[in-house]
Write a structure and sequence with these properties.
An eight-stranded mixed beta sheet has the order 3-2-1-4-5-7-6-8, with helices on both faces. By secondary structure, the protein is α/β, with parallel strands linked by helices. It has one domain: Rossmann fold (3-Layer(aba) Sandwich), CATH 3.40.50.150. Strand 2, helix 3 and strand 3 form a beta-alpha-beta unit.
Amino acid sequence: MKVGTDGVLLGAWVTVQPTDRRILDIGTGTGLIALMLAQRSEASTIVGVDLASVEEARWNGAQSPWKDRLHFEQSAIQHFQAEPFDLILSNPPFFVESLLCPDAGRTRARHTVDLPFEELRDAVVRLLAPRGRFALILPIEAGEQFTALCRGKLTLTRRTEVRTTPRHPAKRVLMEFTHAQTTIAPPPTEQLMIGTGEHETYTPEYRALTGDFYLKF
């Protein structure tokens, strides 16, 4: 199964509460994040939705101990209909205004062609339970754009910037939202460092966050 750092970060970082009974993974791909949430929340039903084929996700889920709680559907999230979810996650396409790649598959995976940020936001507002949370990971600049688009519809409640090493600026931001609330102050920005700067040496914080999912930890 293809395992990307962004997906692992999101699946490990997101807040999972005992009351989360329905979880939605938008753009599930191989089912990585859905599987991580199934491992973290034994009482939940996890649904993965993707515009592309979900056969790989179904196969991966069927090999896991949680196959009875995993369900995958091929559908555009803009048209997906379901009961509200307590938790929604997405590792969405993120090249908003860059040149399109000639390969159609890579274009869909990295550009907001099939899922513009406005339509992702509207789908979350429609499918999120009243007290639910929505979490996603984006590059820093795209994260700022998405947060601005959410004003008045979703409220940012948690934010963590991710740096690969101490020598590099933050490249990714993890964010968690709720339905719009006017009484919540902007959250402080937390920091997460993946590596120490030495070859294949990871920080204690990153090991602690992802240790339940990487065999090497």
